[in-house]
């Protein structure tokens, strides 16, 4: 796959970050010149039959707000009986399943890996789409095949009002202030919560590179889970110096101070917090089925000239560790490594992956990579 030299035309990634990222929409005509669809329709429809593909079918029936949402997998015959227009098939996390789609993430290689979520692909018959909606994260909507008309409202929605009693989240009060028809290779970047409405003009395919922004509640919840796992179940509140209180109804300061100290002790240590954050952010969103895991070793898998790399963009991350060490976060585990492995690990995560020639520097590292391959965190692409 040939990646575009810049995804933003004349605008550099640095300019994009400074002027548009999380700030305002950007339409780039010819963002991906000569884009070749890595998943033409027959292969895309076939993918929808896989139980490990997250596919959804949305059909817009005659009448006002008459939407039907079906969850996959879908047998091939499903699509033979579909109407000529007004339906769309969406598959999330296609980058996890199709190496050539994983390659597409190279177009946004200036973003931190943990900020990337997935590549979602949609096919829409004429008039098809998912309705006017907002997303809570940044998205790069690349037109892959055919034409799609995008209408957006550039002012981010603060509080959305949705159409009631339907299975899809569609804005009840969408009023566009921009309107474009995108052709293959054109790209529309949208910051979070910018309302958008895409309708296929003829059949079309759209590739959405979606970002990831944990909610405060999700982050706290995940950190709490970590803290609970690490907490000493025997440690308990104690007050051997208890004085008779003025009021027995009051909590008193002691228990509040104890709680504050507890939280400070747990979170106050920077190194511990870093470990927890890396653990949380690299956690796999779903476990890979046992029978989908490789049976060969990494060395065997690389023997034919393949390259090993993370199967999912945010699952393998790095951070400087204490005393000049390096922390590798892999699928929710933290591994402290010698900093001399940095160039190799950067190649694994940020580059095109490692080849057979990259193994053999260190036995422990080879074993670690082999384990990560065996558990599906790393994959080998041809
Ligand atoms: C689509 O591809 O139909 C929807 C993509 C999006 O709105 O995020
Ligand atoms: Co959207």
Q: What keywords describe this structure?
A:
single chain; about 375 residues; alpha+beta; Jelly Rolls; Malonyl-Coenzyme A Acyl Carrier Protein, domain 2; 9-stranded antiparallel β-sheet; 3-stranded antiparallel β-sheet; 14 strands; about 25% helix; about 25% strand; globular; binds succinic acid; binds cobalt (II) ion
Q: What do you see in this structure?
A:
The protein is α+β, with helices and mostly antiparallel strands and 382 residues long. The chain folds into 2 domains: 13-211, Cupin (Jelly Rolls, Sandwich), CATH 2.60.120; 290-381, Malonyl-Coenzyme A Acyl Carrier Protein, domain 2. Helix content is 25%, strand content 25%. The chain is built from 11 helices and 14 strands. The protein has helices at residues 13-19, 41-47, 77-80, 94-97, 99-104, 216-230, 253-267, 270-281, 298-302, 342-349, 363-374, and strands at residues 26-28, 54-60, 67-71, 87-92, 116-124, 139-153, 178-182, 187-190, 195-211, 307-310, 316-320, 326-330, 333-337, 378-381. Strands 1, 2, 3, 4, 5, 6, 7, 8 and 9 form a 9-stranded antiparallel β-sheet that branches. A hairpin with a 5-residue loop joins strand 11 and strand 12. It is globular and about 80 Å long. The chain binds succinic acid and cobalt (II) ion. Succinic acid (SIN) binds next to strand 9.
């Amino acid at each position: 796959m040939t990646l575009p030299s810049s995804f933003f035309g004349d605008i550099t990634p640095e300019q994009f970050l400074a002027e548009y990222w999380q700030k305002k929409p950007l339409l780039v005509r010819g963002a991906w010149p000569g884009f070749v669809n890595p998943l033409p329709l027959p292969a895309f429809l076939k993918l929808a039959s896989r139980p490990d593909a997250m596919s959804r079918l949305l059909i817009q029936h005659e009448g006002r707000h008459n939407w039907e949402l079906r969850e996959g997998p879908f047998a091939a015959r499903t699509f033979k009986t579909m109407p000529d227009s007004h339906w769309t098939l969406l598959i999330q996390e296609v980058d996890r399943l199709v190496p050539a789609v994983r390659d597409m993430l190279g177009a946004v290689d200036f973003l931190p890996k943990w900020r990337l979520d997935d590549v979602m692909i949609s096919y829409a018959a004429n008039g098809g789409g998912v309705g006017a909606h907002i997303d809570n994260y940044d998205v790069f909507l690349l037109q892959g095949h055919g034409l799609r008309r995008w209408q957006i409202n550039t002012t981010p929605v603060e509080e959305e009002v949705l159409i009631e009693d339907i299975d899809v989240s569609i804005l009840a009060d969408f009023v566009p202030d921009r309107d474009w028809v995108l052709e293959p290779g054109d790209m529309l970047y949208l910051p979070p919560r910018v309302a958008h409405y895409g309708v296929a003009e003829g059949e079309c395919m759209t590739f959405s590179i979606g970002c990831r922004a944990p909610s405060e509640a999700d982050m706290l919840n995940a950190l709490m889970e970590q803290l609970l796992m690490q907490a000493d179940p025997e440690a308990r509140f104690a007050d051997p110096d208890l004085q008779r209180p003025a009021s027995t109804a009051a909590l008193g300061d002691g228990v509040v101070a104890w709680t504050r100290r507890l939280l400070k002790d747990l979170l106050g240590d920077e190194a511990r917090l870093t470990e927890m954050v890396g653990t949380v952010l690299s956690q796999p969103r779903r476990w890979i089925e046992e029978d989908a895991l490789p049976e060969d070793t990494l060395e065997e898998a690389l023997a034919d000239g393949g390259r090993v790399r993370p199967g999912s963009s945010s699952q393998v991350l790095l951070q400087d560790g204490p005393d000049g060490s390096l922390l590798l976060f892999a699928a929710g585990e933290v591994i402290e490594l010698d900093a001399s492995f940095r160039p190799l690990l950067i190649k694994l995560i940020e580059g095109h992956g490692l080849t057979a020639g990259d193994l053999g520097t260190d036995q422990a590292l080879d074993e670690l990579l082999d384990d990560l391959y065996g558990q599906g965190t790393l994959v080998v692409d041809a």
